[in-house]
């Protein structure tokens, strides 16, 4: 279950340009109040997804503590129905969390 105040962010991006960052075509942010599955809808200009664009969907769940989950594969945007699977983001443990002195 998501943590309190978790936000689902779904982005439609054009990844067709080589050696350039993805261009965001649309985005939606939804406050999560229960468990999955989560329904979302993107409003976008259909002409922006015409060839030669390569639209893909990305998603993440953000919490007040930071990024909690994200997609880790490229999902073509128009593969019906678009089902996005998110993976937990693992965070390395803080090696200094138990330190009691500056030297430790």
Write a structural description.
By secondary structure, the chain is mainly β. It contains no helices and six strands. The chain has strands at residues 7-14, 23-31, 55-63, 66-70, 75-76, 87-88. Strands 1, 2, 3, 4, 5 and 6 form a six-stranded antiparallel beta sheet that branches. The radius of gyration is 18 Å and the shape is extended.
Helix-residue proportion: under 10%
Task: Summarize model confidence as the mean pLDDT.
Answer: 84
The SSE string, one letter per element, is EEEEEE
Characterize the biggest β-sheet: 6 strands, antiparallel
Strand content: 25-35%
Tally of alpha and pi helices: 0
Please state the overall shape, judged from the principal axes of the Cα atoms. extended
Instruction: Give the termini separation.
Output: 36 Å
Poorly predicted runs of 5 or more residues: none
Short overview:
The protein has strands at residues 7-14, 23-31, 55-63, 66-70, 75-76, 87-88. It is mostly beta strands.
Topology record:
Layout lengths: L6 E8 L8 E9 L23 E9 L2 E5 L4 E2 L10 E2 L16
Antiparallel strand pairs: 1-2, 1-3, 3-4, 3-5, 4-6
Structure keywords:
mainly beta, 104 residues, 34% strand
